[in-house]
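Changelog-adjacent note: as of this version, every example in the card shows the full chain rather than a window. The one below runs 231 residues end to end.
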Amino acid sequence: MTARYALYLAPAEDSALWQTGSAWLGRDARTHALLPQPQVEGISADRLQALTASARHYGLHATLKPPMRLADGVSADMLRDAARTLAAATSAFALPALVVDTLSGFIALRTMHSSAALQQLADNCVMQLDRFRRASDAAELAQRRGAGLSAKQEELLTRFGYPYVMDEWRFHITLTERVAGVERDLLLAWLTRHFATALAEPLRCEDVCLFVQDSAAHTFVLRERFALADR
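Full-length structure tokens:
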């Protein structure tokens, strides 16, 4: 598998949210360091590892442009230049407050209200960077369709290689795999307490982040931040 690239929104590395979230997942996506996960009463260490496996693989983030392989004739430097230009043309802005919530069965950090600036940034990343994306192959499309898509999601999958973008995009920072019942309720309550201090801090979107997965054997790593305009 060739490398995959994604544009994500990720908390500042010196923020309480980055440190708290990375510790929860058990990995710092910037340094590659594995971190000791907290103890959760009622959840074994092995179970916690399993519950956070996918989120740990991708790193603490909210997706803007989903992971993609580069099209023929496109280089990583070309993608970086375009992402840097996009960021420089976007003004930094305050993020809505976040809350621990569920989304499609997953537990995630979600915004308490919508943000036109946040939606526009995500839309711009999808549209302006799509020219660098290698078209999805039949197997990738079939995998996405296996989840059951609406007509609108099918249209987006065909156009952008991913069904949950543009009008179907929902800001979220994934914290767990799908959970249900007593385990979901336990984790919702525990994570609400765990993130309370970090989420009390005002949050701003001041950059977009290039995450890279060098091969199928590697996790995604925060490779570079591109600053938004401070105006």
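Structural remarks: DSSP finds nine helices and nine strands in the chain.
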